[in-house]
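call fold(seq) -> tokens
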Amino acid sequence: MAVTEQGRAAAAGAARPAGDGGRVRALVPRALSVAMALAALYSAAIALVPPLRNLLRPVTFVVETAVFPVAPNLGYAVFLAILAGALARRKRAAHRVAAAVVALLVLGDLAVVLSASLMPDLVEEFGLTGQVVASQVNLAVAAAALGVLIATADEFFAPTRKASFRQALATLGGLLALSAAVGYGLVTLFPGTLRGEHHLAWVLERALGGAATFDAQRAGRPPSWVDLVIGLLSAVAVLAAFAVLFRSQRVRAELPPADEERLRALLATYGARDSLGYFATRRDRAAVFSPSGKAAVSYRVVAGVCLAGGDPIGDVEAWAPAIRAWLEEARRYGWAPAVIGPGETAALAYARAGLRVLELGDEAVIEVADFGLDGREMRGVRQAVNRVRRAGFTLRIRRHADVPAAEMREAVEHAAAWRDTRDERGFSMALSRLGDPADGDCVLVEAHDADGRPAGLLSFVPWGGDGLSLDLMRRDRDADNGLTEFMVAGLAAAAPDLGVKRISLNFAMFRAVFEGGARLGAGPVLRLWRWTLVFVSRWWQLESLYRANAKYRPRWVPRFLAFDDARDLPRVGLASVIAEGFLTAPRLPEPPWRLRRAGHATGTGWPSR
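ret:
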């Protein structure tokens, strides 16, 4: 992982001890974030609902007078919402933006108060006493807020990318100019009651989100939908600009060879604990080790989420220091920590470290000693296996190290041809590198039809010294039904010769809901929840995956989701979907000068946003 000197310097702030005063200071980023979020919601509500805007006009006046400016404009609402999120993640750039906004308020109110004290007659003559009093109240509140921001500057330590401020200004300027141009065209075509000489000034005011007023005495306005369109375009401009500004420090999605060796050494000793442990050697993950080096947390940063997979690797006694080191890493850069797929013991360790835990589903594990095709419950699997065997299909099961290079290349080619997606999927339960020489202990299961043509394959990674965990499952789309059951049953039969006692298959999300909701006497809430999941399964195949595992009568092992804050759950869900390969994360285009400087070779890093 690429860690900057700036990030290391921030570690002191992230790890300092906190007394009572420190705990209060630590609450400032979240308090400011909540205040900005409320202002954003209010601004959006009065912008989208004109009747509500009129009804709440007195409330708006009080809020603007005594607290903070709010405006019926979507661009301004988006600005406040993004700023709120960045403040919650303790972004240093967000602190500077917030301090600059509050400082401008202080200067503006101070100018009004000083002018009123120097020219009291003018204040009296034009009836501006109320505005002066409002400015005095605003000045006191804004000055206090500015003092808090200055005093707690070291609470905002999460870095952003180099040159992000310059890039954000360029993005904002270009998109606001586009918003103004489109708005001017609309006002020209649909002026409403607005006179022609006021078109440009009005459009500029709306494009800037009401941040500036060029003519307070102007009368007339175009249709409200024109104002809404300009506000939406400005919102997009602000969203893009602040997305650029608040992007987190880039992290290379790679596992250095030295770290991979350390992980493999830990797996050699402690790998039997977790069936997902071997997936920590994915080379698009990073790893944080405990100070003793006896445990590590494997993770990738996706969509601003520091997403760990499975249990920590290594000695259980060293898990807690490894988890603390991982959490400090996430906090230092303003990432939301989350863990997908830890087992029960690891979930408890993450909960003790302060994360919240939800049960996500169950992993299907076949105990080889208990597996067989006899009995009524295995009738479906037995019939599928016999049908495929009678059709003349055969199996070949070998460790990867025993597969000749030419045959492995053919297997890789077939796996790619049978894949139903453009790229390999997976993060928590997939290796995504079939045929790598470093994975010689993996097991390859190949099925051939009666004519000797390849028809399907399975690949399993080692799970300690006596287990296997499913990595890859591929089959020819034209192959006979039941081929997968034929391969799984064949592997279970050959497992004793391989020294294998347990085989981990797929993960079934919400398995308990599917099973419990179908039972006689299930409650209405559980039945409704199951019905919802069955409906969603039309697109996500949740129920079919559960049934595909359940027919082997496996032992179900619960898996969990750990996260820091309930408000981060949508972002954690999005990051999980992106990491598993079901959704491609949108990326802001790199500036032309950066592409030229890099020779159009952008490297292997995943940008964290």
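The chain is about 50% helix and 15% strand.
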